[in-house]
Amino acid sequence: MSIAAAGLSGGCLLLDDESRTEAAASTVPPTAAPTTSVTEPELLTPYTVVRGDTLIQIADRHGIHLNDLVRVNNIADPTKIFVGQILLIPPPPDPDAGPLLTIAPATDPVLPPLLPTTTAPPITAPGSG
């Protein structure tokens, strides 16, 4: 029994140098160049918080939504910002892109018909009548 056959019975295959090179060449797929899509990076403008600023004021001043400002800056508590803190301001949304969220108009629910009510006899205090 040859070494290759002995290795095959044990679950592995031993190859000599020439066979190993041929096997490696046939099993290794060619590496493809990484594909990168060229997208325009989102431009963030730095803003330094001054005394009296609130996130909602800063968002309104820059024409962005408060949630976008909080998300971009990874702010855990939107009520806590500090004088001197540098915030990154995302660009305002594109007005030509349309609304980000549309809300369906309210529908009139079908309500059960109102039934006439009966009146109960007046309640009198004990001993008054």
Q: What this model shows, in words?
A:
The protein has 129 residues and is mainly α. It has four helices and two strands, in the order ααβααβ. It has helices at 3-9, 17-27, 55-62, 66-72; strands at 45-48, 86-89. It has a two-stranded antiparallel sheet with strand order 1-2. The protein is elongated.
**Sheet bearing the most strands, described?**
2 strands, antiparallel
Alpha-beta content class? mainly alpha
What share of residues are in beta strands? Answer: 5-15%
Mean pLDDT: 73
Helix content: 25-40%
What is the H/E string? HHEHHE
Adjacency order of strands in the biggest sheet: 1-2
Shape: elongated
Provide the gyration radius in Å.
Answer: 37 Å
**Can you count the helices?**
4
**What is the end-to-end distance?**
121 Å
Q: Could you name the ranges where pLDDT drops below 50 across 5 or more consecutive residues?
A: 1-13
Tell me how many strands there are.
2
